[in-house]
Amino acid sequence: MRLTTAIAIVILVFVGPGAAPIAAQDVYVGHGLAMHGDLKYGPGFTHFDYANPDAPKGGEVRLYTIGSYDSLNPYILKGQSAAGIGYLFETLMTNSSDEAFSQYGLLAESVEMPEDRSWVAFTLRPEARWHDGTPVTVEDVIFSLETLKTKGHPGWDFYYGDVVGAEKIGEHKVKFTFAGGLNRELPLIVGELPIISKAYYTANDFEKTSLEPPMGSGPYRVESLEAGRSITYKRVEDYWGADIPVQRGQYNFDVLRYDYYRDPTVAMVAFKAHEYDFRMENASKVWATAYEGSLFDDGLIIKEEIGHSRPTGMQGFVFNTRLPKFADRRVRRALGYAFDFEWTNENLFYGAYSRTASYFSNSELASSGLPGADELALLEPYRDQLPPEVFTEVYEPPATDGSGNARRNLRAAIKLLAEAGWTIQDTKLKGPDGEPMEIEIMIVSPMFERVIAPFVKNLEKLGVSARIRLVDTSQYQNRTDQFDFDMIVLSVGQSKSPGNEQNNYWTTVSADTPGSRNMAGIKDPVVDALIETLIAAPDRESLITATKALDRVLLWGHYVVPHWHIRHFRVAYWNKFVRPAITPKYGLGFDGWWIDPALAASLADRESSAAAQ
């Protein structure tokens, strides 16, 4: 962000009467913040380009999800929170979905920040209200920071660890101060702080799972629920923020209902029976085979692939390196040879996917080729601590000819295992201590069983005793929170502008913190240092360079057996929706869709006619 685009204020700080000023710096005051560069939307903007300010309000949308829930607090480690509960809560600022990382005022009407980004201050909108009509106050903001850091999910303390304090400096104004060190992202991540009601959580235990609808300030409130089975939200008719620029044209449905299903197959059958209205499809086989028939041919259900430019992140089988059997990088690399993506893609996925070869795939942040001079400048100081391949080889996941015969890859795996001291004895792969290699791959969705089964067979050819363990949602959550697993399917999404969240994904500190996202248990001082460099990047170019360097180090650590990705959303919906002419570059923008009354009436008539036949 350039100060030339903002209002510059010179601050003079004195040590006492008659003293000369000891500090002076420009302070940005504006309606939004950009991580790097300028804001797309100026101070007089009325709505985001991908929102239709004239979209009609009304109608009910039924959605689905898999599993269950036992809590309406999404901010603590305990329990499984209900789908959609985030609609109740708001943040100081909100991101636009067509910029890399820019924020505009939501609860806050303006923001102030010095050139060195050592603090940030927000002025709250006087009209901001909780659902009971009371104002959102500075005290609520300060309470939110303190509560999330001390009583919330451990991830919040990671994310806001460098925010050392918040103070009231005006009736509607709050100032946050930061710890030493350069972290240019901190003003923006404070903008993402979810604000909770001090009055409500003073009267109610924040750390306790509860199904009592909490106090919110967002566009929806909880209307009703069936514990673990469904939850219904109703649009707040007198919602305070309906006409502010960042909200105009969005949150158009009167009612949102989420129904829970235990089984994905049953959920698909329910969709075709119009038990719910909209779904995004993640399974390529289902997309290729189940979305067909008269409902689709006659236009009652619309099937679409909507392209996007968002980073697809990393999905893969992750090794729990806290376990001695996975401590050696050569062992992890060897076991990765047992996954035959080419056969899997052709025979199970209908050729729908591309192999993932980066933690930041589908973005300019992904590493490629050999490191250039700018990356080498970051990596060279750590050459002795890094795998030599970081400097000499282009990372590519193992590939096969797709025939299902992975013999060449398995021979390469056996060679690597032997180098690490693992040999096949009496058909069993055994380590230097004579213990056999046994692996349990824990999953929460039965849809992954058909993907993992061929991987297991190839592991068995290496002498590994491998098995699939399907558990329910609660057990999966508890075990992953405590890192109680051998391998799981990891899915880590990435933003267009990586920053503080990387600490929670990959750093030494997060490796032993229950509930962190560092499932692999990575403890690498080079990774820690590169994340610090990434966070302190002064401009977009430096951020890209640091992210590419981090990507290389993670890839050659072989913490994950990479899976696959696609570059579009696969959606299907009953034909009553209209969406804006512009789709946001980095998202689907479903909150900007609306129900067309004429389409809804026509759909109802056609369904009635079909049922009568």
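Second entry:
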Amino acid sequence: MRSDILSNASRAVRRAARWLAAPALALALAACGGGGGGGMPASTSNPNPTPSGCSAATCGTTVVTFTDATGDFTTYTVNVTSLQLTAKNGAVVETLPAATRVDFTQLVDLTELVTAAQIPNGEYVSASMTLDYTGADVEVDVNGTSTAAQTVGTNGQPLTTLTLNVELDNAHHLIVNGGTLSRLALDFNLAASNSVNTAVTPPVVTVQPFIVATVVPSATKPIRVRGTLVSVDTGAGSYLVSVEPFDDQNTSRGQVTVNTTASTTFEINGTGYTGSAGLTALDALAAGTLTVAYGSFDTTTLAFTATQVLAGTSVQMPGMDALYGIVTARSGNMLVVHGATLQSHVTFAEQFSPKDVTLSIGSGTRISVAASPGAAPTVSWPSVGSLITAFGTAGTDAGGNPTFDATAGFLRLELTSLWGFPTAAASGQVTLNLQSIEGFAPSTFNFTGTGGGTPASGDANPAAYVVTTGALPITQLMPPPAALSAGTAAATAATSGPATRFVGLVQPFGAAPPDFNAFTLVNYANADAQLAVSFGMSGSSSGFTTVSATELVLNLAASPSGSVHAIRIGPELIDLTTLAASPTIVPSTTGMGPFGIRVTQSGSADRLMVFDSYAAFEAALATALTGSTSVLKVVANGSYDATSNTFTAAGIGVLLQN
């Protein structure tokens, strides 16, 4: 058996770079209001999920957001049928007006605003989420192929529905007051919730949902607010939307106001704008037009400020299907799109495609560039390695393979993420030993035709992939950690630089070198890392050697052969058993929590406790680790310093069994 951390990066990691162009979003408490007509479907349901008897004095608005931690899935789509809050006095409130179909792999680097529900005033101490696996689409990567998996419970039986109760931190209950805005953030941790066995056919995913909930979430991920336009206030620099998350165009989940600034970028009906010009263009659209805004959340002021807004046909073209994915080859105007998701214009349902999609573009295809209003792209710009969103007509060829015709449609180049080891640097330029583009190994791509001149003379070479960096501080890339020379998936020579992530745009097709134009970089010291250690299905009563107020140390000797015990940083896998000692896990001093402990108890309901401070978490963990308690799994997210062999954790999840 191998767990999720040991295979290729999830589709979420690959797709999430689409959202990296948008680091901020503004949201404020809004009054109730109606929707309008326009080209997109308007909600016909109650605009706010409002319990009977609610008024401005007796109820407040609670914004609920979903996010996720990475896991080994190409898609993980289930129905969330209920999300209930329990007050201190025992009262229970339902916050979802209808079942919500969620692909959790989309939420690794993104937070989705799910509802802005009217909640009766009170102090809420726990949340309860019900997941329906009937008709779920859960697929894992098996040797480069997306393969449907069977989901089972810990008893080995196929799953139907699961309900998990989450206790909020005693020091941070959800307080709801009339006329105010509060927030509850839920994180469905794929790595902690699932164990994957790809040694059998079909693969088997054993599910123990691990969900944490907090009212003081970190602000490290961009937030997406999706909904239909209600009204625009150009004077205030804001607009009002009726929330419709996850491409759900049937049920409104309340209304919110999205604020903008002079630097907010807009793409409206395929045309780019910045600042007030974008808001003016938005004001010209009909009520009911679909909008999407991305950004970050201010946890102190409960204010959100938008940096990227999409609207109209830039979100969905009437009568056209949608395609999202990564271009892995191009010949003329025929592109191969891998890891693709297709969305029907009839049902608006998304469907992950395990097969490559052949995309046709032409002179009639409108092209735009995400978050770049001033760009003037042509049909030659989409190249090998480009992350794209396209609108057109989905179909199949004579062999039943998926096709997509965008010759009379639209294509947007999204910001793309890649990882590599720097091997040479010059002014404004770095050469990489390329390790992945959007999580896919270089062997996935056919770079033929990417270069100019005679055939193959300038084609991109993964062993010497040239990235323009402008004013980015590439000279500050730290020396490679010696500890990574063994046990990694992509060991590097001592003369090369550390694993580095760049975000930007691929050079237009036929115009390389350079091969990639970077806007941002994340070097090894700041890269997101995930540590996961499994102690088998039965667990171990000696899973920790140290549990203290300052650190945790895992007993790797208690992790059975074949179980997971690794740190993943981008394309790198560090097998912890190859290190001289188990890493010391220390709490982060910034952006901490939440921390969770799930205790499986024979003969009684599982208990999931959440803590917003490491101190409270450590005290509860020390108390829970009795001689009869087994440690099943430990998952931590943060950053890893190989020189000191220290993992700095922003969040930790521990699964225990009594």
